[in-house]
Design brief:
Layout (H helix, E strand, L loop, with lengths): L1 H11 L22 H9 L14 H6 L3 E3 L2 H10 L7 E3 L24 H23 L2
Parallel strand pairs: 1-2
Helix pairs in contact: 1-5, 2-5
Length: 140
């Protein structure tokens, strides 16, 4: 949900040259988004129907200027597997309060397996954080 919303916000801000990729640490490839995630974004006017999961790849990490993760565990796993990524990883919710990331940000809880209302609540956290992240990227 975060990547699709980020792509949309970047395009609206004239930053469509920024490349956004979505990848998970579990290495699961080719799975569609959950129906709840698709519905949540549909309600926001976005189409997640074509999304397919992919795992983090070395080439993704090597070329990324910024790696945005949902949890501290994701950050630690990427840093363990790709030590050169240190310093380029930030938790999404570090942008929750504004365009300057704050230390000690909380994890974004994964709503998988929960009702649609949980997806909507997580999307509101995503929306706020991504809006501030876009402001940050505009001033880089």
């Amino acid at each position: 949900m975060a990547a699709e919303y980020l792509r949309d916000r970047l395009a609206r801000q004239g930053l469509s040259h920024v490349v956004v990729e979505s990848a998970g640490t579990l290495g699961i490839r080719g799975r569609p988004a959950t129906p709840e995630a698709v519905e949540t974004l549909r309600r926001a006017g976005l189409d997640l129907g074509g999304h397919r999961s992919s795992g983090v790849r070395a080439e993704d990490v090597a070329t990324a200027d910024l790696i945005v993760v949902m949890t501290l565990a994701h950050q630690e796993e990427i840093e363990r597997e790709f030590p050169a990524a240190r310093g380029r990883i930030v938790l999404l919710r570090a942008f929750e309060r504004g365009p300057d990331p704050i230390p000690g940000a909380p994890d974004l809880e994964d709503p998988i397996g929960r009702p649609l209302e949980e997806y909507a609540a997580r999307f509101e956290e995503i929306r706020t954080s991504v809006d501030h992240l876009v402001l940050n990227l505009k001033h880089r």
